[in-house]
Amino acid sequence: MKRYNFDEIIQRRGTSCVKHDMMDRIYGTNDLQAMWVADMDFRSPDFVMDAIKQRCNHEVLAYTFGSDSYFEAVTNWLDSHYAVKAQKNELHFVPGIVAAIAFAIQAFTEKGDGILVMTPVYPPFVDLPTYSQRKLVCSALKTVGGRFAIDFDDFASKAEGCKLLLLSNPHNPGGTVWGKSDLQRIDQICRRTGTIVISDEIHADLTLPGFHHTSFTTISSEARANTLTFIAPSKTFNIAGMGSSIAYIPDPTLRNTYFGYLDGFEVANGNVFAYTAAEAAYRYGNDWLLQVREYIAGNVAFTMDFLKKHLPQVVAMAPEASFLVWMDFRATGLTNNEIKARLLDVAKVALNDGVAFGGEAYKGFFRLNIGCPRSVLAQALEKICRSFA
Predict the structure, then answer these.
(1) Gyration radius (Cα) of the chain, Å
(2) Pick from 231, 226, 230, 218: which is nearest to 257 by CA?
């Protein structure tokens, strides 16, 4: 097995990357250590880069489509990793999961319809319903035993009248891997209320050792008939710039509505490299994935240990999946603006402000991206620690 070097530091500035080259637009300065946007600082895998280079040897980059070998790679991945028995006709390329959710909102709801989310949650889940002039309905998660838990009484009440549930599975920003019993209760409530489930499973591949991801459609035959699942190789293999995601819809009624929308408006055709990169990732990515998950798990342990030793007033939620850490700074006694000023002006570290994940209730929370070499992570944590000393 080839060993990958996740300790390698790669200079990403000057490559038009959002994480490093857009900080001046977001934070007003570019002299920060970028620990915010949810992509990793690891080199994209060699087998993906080799596939792209090989495709470039044919010097015609014309109109393209998803080949049988592309769909075979996707279906084999879903089967071997999640026991999802997908058929080619149940899959559709989509140019990113945020776009896919936006399309689903347009395809299945009307202006004023309720869309349910569980906060705190990935900011587009909060923003897209509002931008689409739908009614955003929020059910706040609880923190139990150092991880997020669903308040099912509140969830059931809020689901009434909602056309869609936007489910982050596993959860972003907390990294909570929802258990089968949680997903079953979500399924039962949503079927009772007539709420279609949109299961965003982009972080599923990065479920860390010791935890198990359950794909929502495997809960029951009824769940299969009420769910749109979105997956992507982007987080897993650090190829977000490819804009390559997949919609999986086993129910023919939901599928015809959604695929009909995509094809009717010509909004979900892939480009040459999106298909090439995704196929290579899913066909050859197992060894790389095992190693990157181990490295991220090491970064999680390092982060939790560092904070407990050096900054105990900041409480971090240990992710069970992916490379994002939800941090609670409230015990510092500072306001949200004061915390932000310490992070930006003193520590010179860019994190995501928790307010973006669900509003004022998340003042004092920030999200840290630990998908980077451990030396880079250590540097960021040391700077944060010094700024709150």
Answers:
(1) 21
(2) 226
- In this predicted model, what pLDDT tens digit does every residue of 207-227 receive, in sequence order? 999 999 999 999 999 999 999
Mean pLDDT of 45-49: 98
Phi, psi values for residue 222, rounded to 5°: -65, -40
Contact 48, 220 (CB under 8 A): no
- Mark residue 279 as left, alpha or beta (left: phi above 0; alpha: psi -120 to 50; beta: remaining): alpha
Contact 286, 131 (CB under 8 A): no
Question: In which order are the strands placed within the sheet that holds 365-369?
Answer: 315-317, 324-328, 365-369, 352-353
Identity of the residue numbered 253: T
pLDDT-based confidence at residue 1 (cuts at 50, 70, 90): confident
What count of other Cβ atoms lies within 10 Å of the Cβ of residue 227? 25
d(CA 254, CA 258): 6
Cα separation of 294 and 314, whole Å? Answer: 25
Contact (Cβ atoms closer than 8 angstroms) between residue 213 and residue 204? yes
| Length reported for the chain | 389
Query: Angle 64-67-71 (CA atoms, 0-180°, nearest 5)?
Result: 130
- Over residues 271-284, the pLDDT tens digits come to 999 999 999 999 99
pLDDT at 268: 95
Q: Whole-angstrom Cα distance, residue 386 to residue 310?
A: 9
How far is Cα 209 from Cα 293, in angstroms, rounded to an integer? 7
This prediction has a pTM of 0.97
In angstroms, the CA 325 to CA 318 distance is 6
Helices (H) and strands (E) in the chain, counts: 15, 15
Can you give the pLDDT at residue 26? 95
Helices (H), 248-389: 252-265, 272-284, 286-310, 336-341, 374-387
